[in-house]
């Protein structure tokens, strides 16, 4: 467990702590067929919670599991769970499925799929938090070699070794390549760069997680009049950038101050992006639909 003060929803109710609900013989524990998603509750809102719940169901299908909980029902379950915490809590919201029964070599797990949601207290990173990046010899796999069309637990040991390698070199995160050697993402987040006022981010090519926070930032920046280009990004592009920043559910937006020996200041676009994100997240009205946030404001 990464957080403190954990609660777990399992089989119809919220349980205190992190109960032992996965067995050694479960396919998910033994052979890695598990999927999860991560959302955040902080500052009184859970931005894009429904989108994260929808994605965990798509991830389950990609591993040939049958999702058993509607995304809208997950939001209701989370709402019940949040009532157990103070309004100023900062939580990581993690719905997950794992296969219980399946033939040993099968990805298709049959009819039994476990489902749980964990709520863990994890403080939001401070507003001036930044990180540093380095290269890694580990790459994002392609669809033919891994279930990169899912947010699957089995992808994360590869990301973990990227992260360990980077941290051992004294950096905060690893900037991983895709199969062709272009920039994909970091071990935990999507990457953006700014050059001469234009924002660039790797175009989804099926090898990295095109994150929900990434999509939200692209939309908010474009609405603010910033040109955002989804394209092939090379490591030299990153070195030549004026600004580099990361997006992900956990910390939302994190400016990067170094990529190996190239250094960057925290620039105006990263600052603006943070402002736009929280203005949107805390606003009463959804920018797309004009509807009250409702489901997301918990
Ligand atoms: N890439 C990876 C590998 C991740 O684990 C995450 C976090 N889920 C992201 C990108 C960011 O995705 P999102 O904005 O949907 O959280």
Task: Describe the protein's architecture and organization.
This protein has 298 residues and is an alpha+beta fold. The chain folds into two domains: 4-121, D-amino Acid Aminotransferase, Chain A, domain 1, CATH 3.30.470.10; 131-282, Alpha-Beta Barrel (D-amino Acid Aminotransferase, Chain A, domain 2), CATH 3.20.10. The chain has helices at 27-31, 49-62, 71-82, 156-168, 212-223, 235-240, 268-282, and strands at 4-10, 13-16, 34-36, 39-41, 91-99, 113-121, 131-135, 173-177, 183-186, 190-195, 198-202, 228-231, 243-248, 252-259, 262-263. Strands 7, 8, 9, 10, 11, 12, 13, 14 and 15 form a nine-stranded mixed beta sheet that branches. Strands 1, 2, 3, 4, 5 and 6 form a six-stranded antiparallel beta sheet that branches. β13 and β14 form a beta hairpin. α5 packs across α7. The two termini are 24 Å apart. It binds 4'-deoxy-4'-aminopyridoxal-5'-phosphate. One of its GO terms (biological process) is branched-chain amino acid biosynthetic process. Its cofactor is pyridoxal 5'-phosphate. Keywords: Amino-acid biosynthesis, Aminotransferase, Branched-chain amino acid biosynthesis, Pyridoxal phosphate, Transferase.
Supply the key terms.
alpha+beta; 9-stranded mixed sheet; 298 residues; 6-stranded antiparallel sheet; globular; binds 4'-deoxy-4'-aminopyridoxal-5'-phosphate; 7 helices; D-amino Acid Aminotransferase, Chain A, domain 2; D-amino Acid Aminotransferase, Chain A, domain 1
Write the CATH architecture name of the largest domain: Alpha-Beta Barrel
The number of helical runs is 7
Nearest-angstrom radius of gyration?
A: 19 Å
CATH superfamily of the largest domain: D-amino Acid Aminotransferase, subunit A, domain 2
Q: Give the tally of β-strands.
A: 15
Proportion of beta-strand residues: 25-35%
Q: How would you spell out the order of helices and strands?
A: EEHEEHHEEEHEEEEHEHEEEH
Query: What would the principal axes of the Cα set say about the shape?
Result: globular
Mean pLDDT: 92
Oligomeric category: single chain
Largest sheet: 9 strands, mixed
Organism: Palleronia marisminoris
Cofactor: pyridoxal 5'-phosphate
Family: Belongs to the class-IV pyridoxal-phosphate-dependent aminotransferase family.
Pfam families: Aminotran_4
């Amino acid at each position: 467990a990464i957080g403190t003060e954990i609660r777990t929803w399992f089989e119809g109710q919220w349980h205190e702590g992190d109960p032992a609900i996965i067995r050694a013989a479960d396919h998910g524990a033994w052979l890695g067929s598990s999927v999860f998603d991560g959302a955040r509750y902080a500052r009184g809102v859970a931005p894009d919670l429904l989108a994260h719940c929808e994605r965990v169901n798509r991830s389950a299908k990609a591993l040939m599991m049958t999702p058993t909980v509607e995304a809208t029902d997950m939001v209701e379950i989370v709402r019940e769970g949040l009532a157990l915490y103070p309004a100023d809590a900062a939580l990581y919201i993690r719905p997950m499925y794992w296969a219980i029964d399946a033939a040993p070599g099968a990805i298709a797990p049959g009819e039994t799929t476990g489902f749980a949601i964990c709520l863990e207290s994890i403080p939001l990173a401070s507003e001036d938090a930044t990180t540093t990046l380095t290269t890694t010899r580990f790459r994002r796999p392609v669809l033919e070699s891994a279930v990169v069309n899912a947010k699957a637990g089995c992808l994360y040991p590869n990301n973990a070794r990227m992260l360990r390698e980077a941290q051992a070199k004294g950096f905060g995160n690893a900037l991983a390549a895709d199969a062709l050697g272009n920039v994909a993402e970091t071990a935990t987040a999507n990457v953006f760069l700014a050059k001469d006022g234009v924002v660039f981010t790797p175009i989804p090519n099926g090898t990295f997680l095109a994150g929900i926070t990434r999509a939200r930032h692209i939309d908010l920046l474009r609405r603010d009049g910033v040109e955002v280009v989804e394209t092939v990004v090379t490591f030299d592009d990153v070195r030549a950038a004026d600004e580099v920043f990361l997006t992900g559910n956990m910390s939302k937006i994190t400016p990067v101050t170094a990529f190996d020996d190239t250094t960057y200041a925290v620039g105006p676009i990263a600052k603006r992006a943070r402002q736009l994100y929280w203005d949107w997240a805390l606003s009463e009205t959804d920018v797309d639909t004009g509807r009250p946030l409702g489901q997301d404001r918990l």
